[in-house]
Amino acid sequence: MNDSERPTASASPTAPPVIGLTTYLEQAQTGIWDVPAAFLPAVYFHAVARAGGIAVLLPPQPVNTRIADRVLDGLDALIITGGKDLDPAAYGQAPHPATDEPRRDRDDWESALVQRALARNLPFLGICRGAQVLNVALGGTLHQHLPDLVGDTAYQAGNGVFNRIPVDVESDSRLHALLREDRLTVPVYHHQSIDRVADGLAVSAVSAHGIIQAVEVTANTFALAVQWHPEESTEDLRLFAGLIDAASAYRKARS
After folding, report:
1. Which of 12, 41, 64, 126 is the most buried (most CB within 10 A)?
2. Residues designated as active site
3. 45, 57 contact by CB (below 8 A)
4. Nearest Cα residue to 181 out of 166, 193, 194
């Protein structure tokens, strides 16, 4: 059998779908090493695996449209994960004193991936920073520091502690069709949020003070983004299961 005759993953619509997850690129220590490294908290890819998918990590790297398309050719769905703040210059603002130093390599990488993913109707889930990447990539803006708006740190307690807050889900949204709840309590860790919503997005959940907690792309089959961290709710895999179902359907249609 030569290479052209070998079966490929894309030829088997019943195989588990491949889910790409973007990663951090930060200085990291392990043993004697202290080096720049790509990494992602294990809760993300454990959630994908428990929901029935195969996780593939996508570290920041130089990107253009051709590279982004080549990466997405091998995926059945894309997750943009949490992390540092986006560069405010991307949405026309000067940085707030509390805004992180920009990680422009990651910004560029994820923006290219999400735009090309939406163009091919690839199933997409944004988590925390991922919701912000989606909104900014499509022309929206962000609130840079929520304590200035709400007067407290309810959305980001600090020291790696996830607060849990109630969010109200829009009854006519795809998110509601997936979760089947009008209100739920979710783990949050963000000091920024969506401000002006980009064209093509619909708000699907809000918290107190009207802070946007979820958006979805109206023209796509499955393109959702939440400001909370569903990977931290290990007992609730509904968002990941919905993504896996959409990825399986995408894989079958492509095959």
Report:
1. 126
2. 128, 229, 231
3. yes
4. 166
Cβ atoms of 126 and 137 closer than 8 Å? no
CA nearest to 146, candidates 209, 86, 239, 196? 209
Neighbours of 163 (CB within 10 A): 15
pLDDT in tens, the chain (255 residues): 444 443 444 446 678 999 999 999 999 999 999 999 999 999 999 999 999 999 999 999 999 999 999 999 999 999 999 999 999 999 999 999 999 999 999 999 999 999 999 999 999 999 999 999 999 999 999 999 999 999 999 999 999 999 999 999 999 999 999 999 999 999 999 999 999 999 999 999 999 889 999 999 999 999 999 999 999 998 899 999 999 999 999 999 988
Amino acid of residue 94 = A
Measured from the Cβ of residue 91, the count of other Cβ atoms closer than 10 Å reads: 19
CB-CB contact of 175 with 169 (8 Å): yes
How far are the Cα atoms of 42, 71, 205, 252 from residue 64, in angstroms, in the given order?
28, 11, 33, 28
Domains of the chain: 17-254 (3.40.50.880)
Rounded Cα distance, 249 and 91, in Å: 34
Place of tokens 């979710």: 186
